[in-house]
Amino acid sequence: MGITIKEVSKAFGTFAAVKNVNLEIPTGDFVALLGPSGSGKTTLLRMIAGLEGLDSGNIFFDEIDYTYKPIKERNVGFVFQNYALFKHMTIFENIAFGLKVRPRKTRPSKNVIADKVNELLKLVQLDHLATRYPSQLSGGQRQRIALARALAVEPDVLLLDEPFGALDAKVRQELRHWLREIHQKLNITTIFVTHDQEEALEMADTVVVMNQGKIEQIGTPEEVYQKPANAFVYSFLGRVNEFRGSALFEDNEENIGYIRPHEIVLRKILQGNSVSSEVSHIHIIGSTVRFELRRQDTNDLFEAEMSIEQYQNFSPVKKGDILYAEFKNIVVFNTNSANEITLTEKSGIRTSLKSKLI
Ligand SMILES: Nc1ncnc2c1ncn2[C@@H]1O[C@H](COP(=O)(O)OP(=O)(O)OP(=O)(O)O)[C@@H](O)[C@H]1O
Questions:
Q1: Taking the alpha carbons of 351, 352, 356, 358 in that order, is the dihedral positive or negative?
Q2: Positive or negative CA dihedral for 106, 108, 110, 114?
Q3: pLDDT for 149-181, tens place per residue?
Q4: Which run of H or of E encompasses 176?
Q5: Does the Cβ of 206 fall within 6 Å of ligand 1?
Q6: Maximum distance among all Cα pairs of the chain, rounded to whole angstroms
Q7: Which value does ipTM take for this structure?
Q8: What is the distance in A from the centroid of ligand 1 to the CA of 236?
């Protein structure tokens, strides 16, 4: 089922939570609503579900106006962060619930329900837990059951609100892969809310970046990461060093420059337009090595990264050593218009920057 969100707005009292949002979601797409806390992601998701009314605008499911349709006519599956399983029911009964409560006319027979539940238990790889109660499951297992329960009614759309938010990093990582696989098998149009950029970039086909009730950018993970539409998207996705100040250009405009840590080239000898910097920390994080450095000209801290292989060729290097940093590919935005300004021909900039780690 495809979803069209057209000029949708929602306020709580005088506070505008969602402001004139337009979004087209094709059938089978896997969409992440990504943004900081309070950006309106959950409100938008709840409006799609029918859990929240709109102030203005329309929501279409396959070109049919669903704006005023009650939730039970929407055929959406919903998974929340906090499991929301029925405590007094077994896992089997939890999954069967949505089918059992159907009106007699559309309710499947007991055997059909049992087959469906067993099929879903296999899909979420927890068939051995059918007779347990939710309290006897781990957090990750409960979320899988919550998904199985949402899928039992064969929804046209699956809506997930921070489904892995309460789980530890390792389980979250496993469930991301698992959910992707399930999506590939079932191909249900899926929208999930997250404030975790890594989760959005890793899982989604389409990332919708939200900020202050508005959509800042819609694109593939690669597009939003490689070609951010504005300064907000750039700084929200991934680690960045920020450069500010009038020294950036001579045009007296307020500009912000960003560079990602892996785009900074570190050398042991001065070459080209580089900034002499003192190593203040070296962290080895799996296959990546992260340097924290202090510029000797401005005393500002910044972060650079290289692969472990590069580091092995580069070492020995230790805290207190002086390295030369070349800031390649700085992306500069005008803070008034948030439009990107190309930088290539601006010379002298790299040594006059004030930098800040964000
Ligand atoms: N029922 C409500 N009454 C009043 N204000 C609300 C209500 N629901 C949400 N808001 C406000 O609307 C804004 C957007 O909330 P929303 O939950 O959609 O954001 P979010 O991006 O999902 O944030 P989070 O990641 O923290 O859940 C917030 O400032 C929130 O306080």
A1: negative
A2: negative
A3: 988 888 999 999 998 887 788 888 888 888 898
A4: helix 169-186
A5: no
A6: 79
A7: 0.92
A8: 19
